[in-house]
UniProtKB/TrEMBL annotation:
Superkingdom of this protein's organism: Bacteria
Leader peptide range in chain numbering: none
InterPro entries linked: Nudix_hydrolase (IPR020476), NUDIX_hydrolase-like_dom_sf (IPR015797), NUDIX_hydrolase_CS (IPR020084), NUDIX_hydrolase_dom (IPR000086)
GO MF term list: hydrolase activity
KW Cytoplasm (keyword) present: no
Keyword Disulfide bond annotated: no
Annotated protein name in UniProt: NUDIX hydrolase
Length: 300
């Protein structure tokens, strides 16, 4: 079975009357004639924020600014050549700031239009676009969702990883953190619980799995904190192989209603060496990863 994985960013641009900007797949795309939100793949080392601005300009001729983070989704699709593709999609709300509506030339889209609400439902839409816009659609083939996918083992090329992380707190306001094991990038620093999403896994499911593996806690997602990335072309993994590391990270606000003593439950030798609850005052004295510092700063 041939599999492929990609990460992408898209924007929702609405007019005062509720119309939404959509692009149509060209003959060069995997699904010609099917409509989608403007956006596309995140280049290696590129921040998702920059991706959506770049892709909007390429596909619509318009310049935009991000006004909010709407949602993060993941889906599986069978491509015309039989490849099973997993796409992690970051969806932003955007506002047009300039430019002239112009279709892309010689690209994967061939038409752009602002579609009235009543007309959206009658267009052929990519499933993720239909879901974001609240239009009914057929979910992925159940057999596809249940397929046993191989785990990629080749780590000699550039690595783009999509991860889900938890800014987790308990009813007393304590903050749950994990310590990165020695030998991994950031070894010894305290980090948000979470990690990479598996092929075929949604960010929410990955977060629940990682939270339990790294801390033995079960939590409830209450919101999105933000999206960030880290590009480290010089990073070396525990195998001693250069990773050309690019990690794209979505951070969720998580509540743990019934906290227990934090403990790592994943097998020895993983990337987490320790987990613990801390008061905000204690966190201020810890060596933290930049992701943890940024998430705490965003939420005050």
């Amino acid at each position: 079975m041939k599999i492929n994985r990609r990460a992408a960013a898209y924007g929702v641009s609405r007019s005062a009357d509720g119309g939404v900007l959509l692009t149509r797949g060209s003959d060069a795309s995997a699904f010609p004639g099917v409509w989608s939100l403007p956006g596309g793949g995140i280049d290696h080392g590129e921040h998702p924020d920059d991706t959506v601005v770049r892709e909007f300009a390429e596909e619509t001729g318009l310049t935009v600014r991000i006004t909010g983070l709407r949602t993060v989704v993941a889906d599986l699709a069978r491509l015309p050549d039989g490849t099973i593709e997993h796409t992690d999609r970051i969806i932003y709300d955007v506002e047009v700031t300039g430019g002239e509506l112009t279709p892309e030339t010689a690209g994967t889209t061939d038409l752009v239009d602002r579609v009235a609400p009543a007309e959206v439902a009658v267009l052929p839409l990519l499933p993720f676009t239909a879901g974001v816009l609240g239009v009914g659609f057929e979910s992925a083939d159940p057999a596809l969702r249940a397929a046993p996918f191989p785990v990629a083992s080749d780590r000699t090329g550039p690595v783009q990883r999509f991860g889900a992380y938890a800014l987790a707190t308990d009813p007393d306001g304590r903050i749950l953190l994990t310590r990165i094991a020695d030998g991994y990038p950031g070894g010894g620093l305290w980090h948000l619980a979470g990690g990479g999403t598996d092929f075929g896994e949604t960010p929410e499911d990955a977060l629940a799995r990682e939270l339990y593996e790294e801390t033995s806690q079960r939590g409830r997602i209450t919101g999105l904190v933000g999206v960030s990335h880290r590009y480290d072309p010089a990073a070396v993994g525990p195998e001693g192989v250069p990773l050309q590391w690019h990690v794209i990270r979505v951070v969720y606000q998580v509540t743990v209603p019934e906290p227990t003593p934090a403990a790592v439950t994943e097998a020895a030798g993983g990337s987490t060496s320790e987990a613990a609850w801390f008061t905000p005052e204690q966190v201020g004295n810890l060596p933290l990863t930049e992701l943890t510092r940024a998430a705490l700063g965003r939420t005050g």
